[in-house]
Each structure stands twice: as structure tokens, then as C-alpha cells.
Amino acid sequence: MAHDPVTYRRAFRRTDDYTPGTPKVKLVYEALPLPLNPTSVLIKVHAVSLNYRDANIANGGNPWPVLPNGILCNDAAGEIIAVGEKVTTLAVGDRVSPVTDTEYISGRELGRSWLAADEDGVLTDYLVFDANKLCKLPAYLDWVSAATIPCAGVTAWAALKEMRIGQTILIQGTGGVSSFALKLARAAGLRIILTSSSDEKLQQAKEKFSGPSFLTVNYVKNLDWHEEVLSLTDGIGVDIVVENGGASSLIKSMKCTRRGGIISQVGYLGKQTPSDLAELIPLIIDRRVVLRGINCGSKYDMEDFCAALSATQMQLHDIIDSIYPFEKAEEAIQYLWEGKQVGKIVLRL
Length: 349
Prior knowledge:
The chain has 349 residues and is an alpha/beta fold. The protein contains ten helices and 15 strands. The strands form three sheets. Strands 3, 4, 5, 6, 7, 14 and 15 form a seven-stranded mixed beta sheet that branches. Helix 10 links the parallel strand 14 (320-325) and strand 15 (344-348). Helix 3 packs across helix 4. The longest helix is centred in the last third of the chain and has 14 residues, at 299-312. The radius of gyration is 20 Å and the shape is globular.
């Protein structure tokens, strides 16, 4: 093992106090799990990207059990500073990130272990991971941009699988996954319809993602937004939906998806009321919709995405909404919880 003097780290652990207005994370100093196992590496973290699930977990809204007082966040970009004696695929100096689901490697695994939920996350200045749970990051990206890849980027990449040039995609919202999906859809030559509850955010998205224009729909101003989407597609419907709302929007998403189209369910941002799904079975049969759950993506998906980024040299600066110092994690989480962002929020170390 390469020698390194680092033995302690700073980490933000959840308080698990869900009372509005109270701190959701607490900065702690704790010993690193050293010495390294033979197959593990020590990583110096340079940037951590936030996702909606982080704010949701911190405020007690996660629909699955979480590790008590766990370390938050699952997206980090860092540099390897020490390696275990049996590590052969990585070396000191490599730029890496852990995969979001550390049990989801090839895509054929039956179990799961999500960072920041089933195990500690990455909101810390040093990490220790088994080399097999890590992906190399594109060398051309800065740390802030690279930190957005593991969850939002890979989720969007997985959600757009099987799309073809000229097809139409409906993207819900202006958060991290949606912003990535918009960039990837544009690069793939897709016709884009973007929805939001805010005309201001739709305009911001148009300004941030300049280039070929895309269509927009405000689903608050038009509660029958699916009819508007159908009208924009000459009554046929879109080929694919990046679905963020869950129960509150899924039925309408199905109604504006063409027969035989795909819905990639990537989130559950809306109110999850079972009665909203009363039409699910007849609709999914009638429209022959393929509804697929996207639980981020596998390590192989992340490697494929990073290879595509490296090949195209795609810049990700327009994905970034705002950058906070590591010490301002509480403020950044609250900003995200209030839904003020268009794109990604990143903490820089």
C-alpha cells in the first residue's frame, strides 16, 4: 500500500431531525477505515454533487429505509492518493467516482446497496472504496463537472437507451436528471418537449441550453398538459418520456406516449396518491407502453457514459446551477429542497 498520512476525515452526517427549520446535517471528524484492505483505495474528494434524493432523505421523505445518521450524497469526484496491495486496475493519481449502487455492476445483479441510504454516502473530504466499485472519470472535465456524472448523468443515459435520431422525447422538469437528458437528447438528434411548473425556469432552460430550439409546456398553467403534448405531436404522442413525477403524472404521461412507446420512470417528485393510478392497467395495455424503472444505472452504464463523454468532449458547465463551498452543505441542501435550481448544485472542496 502506498503510504499516506491522512487518517481522519471531515464528513456531513444527517441529524435525522425532520422538524422544519432545524439543521439536516452535522459536520463531524472521524477516523478513516484504515489500514486499507488489499483491494481498496483512498480517495481525496474534490467535488460532491447534490441530487433531489439527498434533500429528500435529509427531510425524511425517502420511501425506502436508510442508515441512521448516515453520510449524505452519492455523487463525488476525487483523486486516488493510496491503493491496496492487490489493486491492479487503478493507480495513485487516477480520477474516479464510486457508482451510486455499489452492488449494481454488470446490470445482472439481484441485490442493491445505494450510497447515502443502505450505506454511508460521499459528503466528506476523503473516501475509502473497493476498487471494483469505482469508475474512472473523463480526464477533460474539471472536478465540478465530473461530480455530476454518477447519478444524474448515468440516470439520464440509462433513461434514453434505445432512442433514435428524429424521435420525440418528453422531459419532465429542469433538475439534474432532466438537464442531462436534455443535453443528451439534443446531442442524439431528438425532438424535445420540456415541461415545468414555472415559465421562468423554462425560459432559464432555453437560455442555458442554447442551440436548436425545443418546445415547452407549463403543466401548472395547463392541467391537461398531456393534451398539449399530443397536439404538439399531431395526436401521435412522444416516443419516450423521462418521467419524474410518479403517481401524480404517470397516467397523463402514458396518455401522451405513442402506442408502443417507452416511459423511463426516474423519479417520484409529485404526491404519491394510489388513486391517481386507477387507469394504469387499462392504459398500459391499450397503449402498449413499456414502463421501465430506472434506478440510476450499473457500473457498466457509467463506464459507457464516460466513454461517450470522452469521445465527444461534451462540456457540462451548462448543467451547473450553482457551486457552494463544502462547508455550506446545509445551505445547499435547503436550496435544493426548495426547488430553486435549474440543473445541478455542486459542493467544491
